[in-house]
Amino acid sequence: MLNYKTMKIRSIKQFGELFLIIFAFLFQNSANAQDIVQPIPYPEMSAKEKAMLKYEDMLDYRVNIDSIIKFENVEYNTLPGIYPEEMMFDIYLKSSTFQNKNQKAPVLFFIHGGTWKNGDKAFPLKQIRQILDSGFIFISTNYRLSPNPVNLKDTNRIKFPIHLKDCARAFAHVYQILPFINGDTNRISVMGHSAGGNLAISLATMEEFLGKYNIPLTKIKAAINLDGIGLNLYKLINSIHGSYKKEFMNAFGETGESWVKASPALNFKKDPSIANILLITQDSDFRSQFSFEFYDKLTEAGIKAAIFIGFDFTHNEMITNFCNNETESTTLYTKYIFNFIQEAFKEKNN
Questions:
Q1: Mean pLDDT (whole number) for 66-87
Q2: Span of 2-6, 29-33, 237-241 with lowest mean pLDDT
Q3: Is 253 left (phi over 0), alpha (psi -120 to 50) or beta?
Q4: Which domains does the chain have, with CATH numbers?
Q5: d(C-alpha 77, C-alpha 62), whole Å
Q6: What pLDDT sits at residue 43?
Q7: Over residues 6-21, mean pLDDT
Q8: Which pLDDT score is estimated for 117?
Q9: Cα dihedral: 73, 124, 143, 272 (round 10)
Q10: pTM of the predicted model as reported, rounded to 2 decimal places
Q11: Closest by alpha carbon to 280, among 267, 268, 266, 294?
Q12: How far is 92 from 100, CA to CA, in rounded Å?
């Protein structure tokens, strides 16, 4: 018996598929049904057609917030046994940006922190407004998380490289739909806080992850690490102890070999054409050493990099003070980051 379901027909292809199902059902009792109903292969869709389908799907998630358009909980992947929200992102842009077909907007792709086991894509609207007022389209993504609480006994747990693979897939999904929302694929920046800083820098410098989607690293013009210590994970994990060490082992495995593979400071593409790198760190000898060592490696390879030390900022304030103009120091901090990104756009697109 044919099981009728309510269906959304978003494309000619889907309409054709539904027609074939109904047509086959009507003739299923006919002796000549197999002669009449033959599978009709559809030609492989072009990349543009696939991107259009993703954009059309995304329209179902549109929410209007004053002058802001939000595409909320957009799925970039689905897997059995995985909570859908773990593989979703949000897109924010001004209505005027969405409507202005004559001018493309730069992009800020954000990855949250939380020791690779906590956190989500939620972002304060007050900060988002300033990002959008600065002319950007803002994307914040989720990714699958390692066990919380830490569980080193679970050999099948989520750990490197799964977090990074998820971020790469989300980025690729966003990259495909940017032309439909007036996003500029030649002005993309990535940013992450804490664990997200590790993921943002890895995404921008370790080419195998975006390479899977045929996206060259040169498409990312600037990468900003907001106090993420996970740069040389081999050195870091070997120098810490107790529960702090177990949190990193929870995310990156228990062998030195896996820590080396997960370290952007040990695996970055030594090519000056990759993104300009901004390393923001607390005024702590232990934390800042990893930024300074990575900075030296980057500049030696001819890659433009900079270090910003947040002398008065706590770890959490590295993100809460971004796009927060309550004090002179937070205003200057925000301005510095945006200036770095804009200079990278200018340099990399000349």
A1: 96
A2: 2-6
A3: left
A4: 1-43 (no CATH), 46-348 (3.40.50.1820)
A5: 18
A6: 54
A7: 44
A8: 99
A9: 120
A10: 0.87
A11: 294
A12: 15
Strands 68-75 and 220-226, sheet pairing? unpaired
Which is higher by pLDDT, 276 or 41? Answer: 276
Which tokens in the block code for residue 133? 């007022």
- CB 16, CB 42: distance < 8 Å: yes
Element (H, E) at 173: helix 162-177
| Two tokens, residue 209 | 């992850």
Shortest CA distance to 137 belongs to which of 166, 169, 180? Answer: 180
Amino acid of residue 105: A
Query: Is residue 96 pLDDT above 90, yes or no?
Result: yes
- Stated as kind and residue range, the H or E segment containing 184 is strand 183-193
- Residue 213: pLDDT over 80: yes
User: Residue 196 and residue 190: Cα distance in Å, rounded?
Assistant: 10
73 exposed, middle or buried (CB, 10 Å; 0-12, 13-18, 19+)?
middle
- Look up tokens 């002005």; give the residue: 187
The token pair at 15 is 């309409």
Backbone phi, then psi, for 265, in 5-degree steps? -65, -20
